[in-house]
């Protein structure tokens, strides 16, 4: 963290917009990034984020992909128009290749899965030019990635176990057992 704080302290503009509709995560991530030296603005919706970008375009942004009132891609576009040199990192609880490609095409420099560590987010924001940030120190386990995917499909199916099992091509009872367990680490 000391190296990151020094790198952030050397920045001419430390403004950072954090957009996430999960208030505890947004607050925790915002505080952690503020402790590292960023000047954070925390917002919980696309409309709040667009207003914040119009008022003062940030040098950096950490945006959630899926929100109740839209998508973080809309905010990426607004930031790119207002401040082309801004660095944007997308966060999502439901990572997949299609959304990662869409995020990068819209102008994001990186795409991280939730829960993202503040150091990983800061490293992604501070990556220079074409240099890719280093891989995360503690990536999600394969079991956790699988569990996240199942939860996402379950949510998209309106919490209908039978429909979720059909879409995942698994037995309904197997799915019920997985859903009854706690999330793996």
UniProtKB/TrEMBL annotation:
InterPro entries per UniProt: ActR_PrrA_rreg, CheY-like_superfamily, HTH_Fis, Sig_transdc_resp-reg_receiver, WalR-like
Domain of life of the source: Bacteria
UniProt entry tagged with the keyword Phosphoprotein: yes
Transmembrane region(s): none
Entries under Gene3D superfamilies matching the protein: 3.40.50.2300, Homeodomain-like
Domain spans labelled Response regulatory: 15-129
Keyword Transcription (UniProt): no
Record-listed 4-aspartylphosphate modification sites: 64
Keyword list, A-Z: DNA-binding, Phosphoprotein
Pfam family, one: Response_reg
NCBIfam families xrefs: ActR_PrrA_rreg
UniProt-recorded name of the protein: ActR/PrrA/RegA family redox response regulator transcription factor
Naturally occurring in which organism (per UniProt): Phenylobacterium conjunctum
